[in-house]
Write a structure and sequence with these properties.
The chain has one domain (2-79). Helix content is 33%, strand content 20%. It has 4 helices and 5 strands. The protein has helices spanning 2-7, 25-31, 50-60, 72-79, and strands at 12-15, 18-20, 37-40, 42-45, 66-69. The strands form 2 sheets. A 3-stranded antiparallel beta sheet has the order 2-4-3, with helices on one face. It has a two-stranded parallel ribbon with strand order 1-5.
């Protein structure tokens, strides 16, 4: 998709995580049984660093658009600098699903 994004003239590509909720948990857990989930307001599927791989590829290929990391922790830091919390242990967060 990165070359197509270049071709259509996108100026900024904002990348976020997938939000986990009662409607999508079963399907996502079936597709990605080893997927990591973090909590930052809502439950999010951790991208495993994919956004940084995309940023590196855009730089390497010299595409003209920027890639913005809009994950929940970045957004949290932007909204309330110095007041975000990282949860190291997320076991049981989706127990109700």
């Amino acid at each position: 998709m990165l070359p197509k994004i270049e071709d259509i003239g996108v100026k900024h590509l904002n990348i976020t995580e997938v939000e986990i909720n009662a409607k999508n948990f079963k399907r996502i857990s079936a597709l990605l049984p080893e997927g990591e989930i973090c909590q930052c307001g809502e439950l999010q599927l951790y991208d495993g660093g994919l956004v940084y791989d995309i940023i590196e590829e855009v730089i390497r290929k010299r595409y003209s658009y920027s890639v913005l990391d809009c994950n929940c922790f970045v957004k949290s830091i932007q909204r309330t600098p110095g007041k975000w919390v990282f949860h190291e242990d997320v076991k049981g967060l989706c127990a109700e699903y």
